Amino acid sequence: MRIEPGTLVGVSVTRGWCQAAERFLLQYGYPNLEAERYLLLAHVVDGDDPKGLWVKYRENDQTPTYLMLIPWNHICTVVQAEEFSDGVRKEAKKIGFAAP
Question: Against a cut of 0.85, is the pTM above it?
Answer without folding.
Answer: no
